Design the sequence.
């Protein structure tokens, strides 16, 4: 997949070439290549042990690659020590000095670099304004909330004006409401200063809400890189379809060839149809992925069986009302569960539905994503 930078004939801001990292016989990162543009808010997303944090640490210079190299602005930094790279890292723990107040925490790196005192004072004031902590400069970390400590750590990480800021699960210690508020602040700050942010997270919703692009890692490999909407709507495989949000997966067997070819669902016994034109082999096993919000729910008239493509019969087995949305589960006659999300008010017929009612579920061809692995 060609990046915009390649299409315009110029090198990307940060380029990772075939990077691998082995710990004895364990491959933590396996032959990963990635281009990141200046000013991006890029998220590395993956489960525990997928390799995302190890990759971040190699960009920071805290781990040495087994093979491959890393370039920033056309300069090879693979063997450059961390303190000489134009990057800084914000850790999950924030690592604030408890005996120093907010101002001194932010100024610490600048003093280590021997900045003149007037310049340090001006930079600290600038960063306090940026993170909206102007009135908290004299407080110690233990006098701040979790969100405020997070912003102090961010200001300190930005103090030396790094070209790339690396963030390792920076919001994981915050509760849900504060986390969402801090996500918005983080995005606003990144847009204001234009620094390239690369963040590691295991939280899919977090990555979807803040990233310009997402890279999903699995078993030490970089599996797919896309903008959030493309990643959600067009996952590359079953793993990503299930990892990014909720999904219904229907297994199918290909029957026949040419125009007469059909996909017979193992899960429903019916026919599955999509708009995708993929060459399939007779007898091949495939999967069709459908997001819960794209599944349609209707009451089932008595005596009428659901036989059309992408339509099945079942019983309503769970309703979870969450205010703005409602999660529903239907168990098909085959026993296969189907998740449905309704984000608007139900119509009159749907509102009368109760657990155990016979229903029909269906989805349009355009809602179905064909996956072959």
Sequence:
């Amino acid at each position: 997949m060609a990046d915009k930078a390649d299409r315009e004939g110029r090198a990307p801001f940060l380029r990772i070439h075939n990077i691998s990292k082995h710990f004895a016989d364990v491959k933590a990162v396996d032959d990963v290549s990635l281009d990141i543009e200046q000013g991006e808010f890029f998220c590395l997303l993956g489960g525990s042990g997928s390799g995302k944090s190890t990759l971040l640490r190699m960009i920071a210079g805290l781990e040495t690659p087994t093979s491959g190299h890393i370039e920033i602005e056309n300069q090879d930094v693979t063997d450059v020590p961390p303190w000489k790279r134009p990057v800084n890292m914000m850790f999950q723990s924030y690592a604030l000095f408890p005996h120093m107040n907010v101002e001194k925490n932010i100024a610490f790196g600048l003093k280590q670099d021997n900045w003149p005192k007037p310049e340090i004072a001006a930079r600290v004031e600038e960063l306090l304004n940026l993170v909206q902590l102007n009135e908290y400069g004299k407080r110690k970390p233990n006098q701040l909330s979790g969100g405020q400590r997070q912003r102090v750590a961010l200001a300190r990480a930005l103090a030396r004006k790094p070209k790339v800021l690396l963030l390792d699960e920076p919001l994981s210690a915050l509760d849900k409401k504060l986390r969402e508020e801090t996500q918005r602040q983080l995005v606003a700050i990144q847009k204001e200063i234009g620094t390239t942010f690369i963040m590691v997270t295991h939280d899919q919703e977090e990555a979807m809400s803040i990233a310009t692009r997402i890279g999903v890692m699995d078993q030490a490999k970089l599996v797919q890189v896309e903008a959030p909407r493309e990643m959600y709507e067009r996952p590359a495989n079953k793993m990503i379809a299930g990892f990014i949000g909720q999904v219904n997966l229907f297994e199918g067997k290909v029957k026949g060839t040419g125009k007469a070819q059909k996909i017979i669902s193992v899960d429903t016994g019916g026919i599955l149809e999509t708009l995708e034109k993929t060459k399939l082999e007779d007898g091949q096993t495939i999967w069709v992925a459908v997001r819960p919000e794209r599944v349609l729910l209707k009451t089932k008239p008595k005596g009428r069986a659901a036989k059309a493509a992408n339509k099945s019969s079942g019983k309503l087995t769970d309703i979870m009302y969450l205010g703005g949305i409602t999660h529903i589960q239907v168990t098909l006659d085959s026993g296969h569960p189907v998740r449905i999300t309704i984000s608007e008010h139900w119509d009159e017929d749907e509102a009368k539905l109760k657990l155990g009612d016979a229903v029909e579920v269906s989805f349009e061809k355009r809602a179905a994503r064909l996956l072959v692995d």
In short: The longest helix spans residues 176-193. The two ends are 19 Å apart (CA to CA). Residues 184 and 210 are 8 Å apart (CA to CA).
